[in-house]
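tool_call predict_complex ligand=nicotinamide-adenine-dinucleotide
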Amino acid sequence: MKQREKHGKTHGMKSVVRVPLGERAYDITIAEGALGRIGSLVRAALGDAARRVAIFSNARVYSLCGHTTASSLRAAGFGVDEHLMGDGERAKSLRTAERAWSYLIERRFERGDAILALGGGVVGDMAGFVAATYQRGVPYIQAPTTLLAQIDSSVGGKTAVNHSLGKNLIGAFHQPRAVIIDPLILHCLPAREFRAGLYEAVKYGIIRDAELAGWIDREHEAIAAMEPAAMTRLIARCCEIKAEVVTADERESGLRQILNYGHTVGHALEAVTHYRRLKHGEAVAYGMKCAARIAEALGILNEEDRRKIARSVDMFGVLPKINDLDPGAIIAATAYDKKVSRGKVKFILPTQVGSVITRDDVPMKVLRGAVREMLR
Ligand code: NAD
Ligand code: GLY
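tool_result ok
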């Protein structure tokens, strides 16, 4: 947690983390009740000249916090439009993007107008993609409402839609002008979605911050109960780590790949279960345990740390059972991962809690053994 002083400020239940990307720099504001005063935060991020904001959301999220958000934007002098898209991964499609482009064109949305993504990662990725492409790019703001979106997908400017042949294959890098996080909205989140986000928080500790990993272990009850101080601290530290990594490697040519810890096998699990059975965070949780087993088998992680990693992943509850899955299909699916380079599958492997390396030479025998263990 030492980085806090360097990268951000925390006042009571509010924390601000800067993403220092030069002319694309922006603030991540984490504050209870932030959605109720989002208008002034958006005004500060966009400036006095901005006139209109289109809220992109879905019906479920909009019914929870859409009106509060829209009222606050209007009070800050914005004209507000609302565009609701479908819910779920299938809504992250080119067809949905086309509907959104039409919506903006029909309303004569201009280059200086902005989009506000109010929802989970699906809404955020989609709204960001539309913002990146409409008139070659308009400003957008992320107001993430799932834990996964608050600590991961809303930060860093990766935007995408899915293609029928694979997830997130069509996209662009486009940084938001601000990320505005209200941890209170997480109280509406189904418990399983919350847990799925917690696995990504555990991931940050394992890849880069042993102190965070230890703190999550010690405070897991406060975190599971969404105690305000614990949640603000957790979200802020995860955002700080993401901001550091993205600032060092915005376009994922090196360091940013560490964020994919657990994702090689995780994505394979999502693919073989047709994106229906597991939440993304749950698949990553299995993937993290599997990668730790691979690392142990390669002799780069000791057994004690491998057990520690497994314990941290299991701490927030039992993962859905997957022991009926075919190990061969999972292994075959790793070859379709976006991280495959020159035919070699890349794995992010822990060397201890708080540190990972990238390897593309994992022998098939080792991978097979780790996948079998994972399915046990
Ligand atoms: P999601 O957006 O599908 O949200 C999960 C469910 O929770 C949805 O049904 C949604 O309507 C609902 N919901 C959202 N906020 C709620 C709230 N406060 N209360 C009650 N229900 C609420 O899923 P997600 O896990 O947020 O995001 C997953 C997506 O994020 C995937 O498409 C993934 O590819 C993407 N992603 C992107 C990045 C990135 O860097 N851009 C990183 C990680 C994941
Ligand atoms: N979620 C991975 C990344 O943003 O790079």
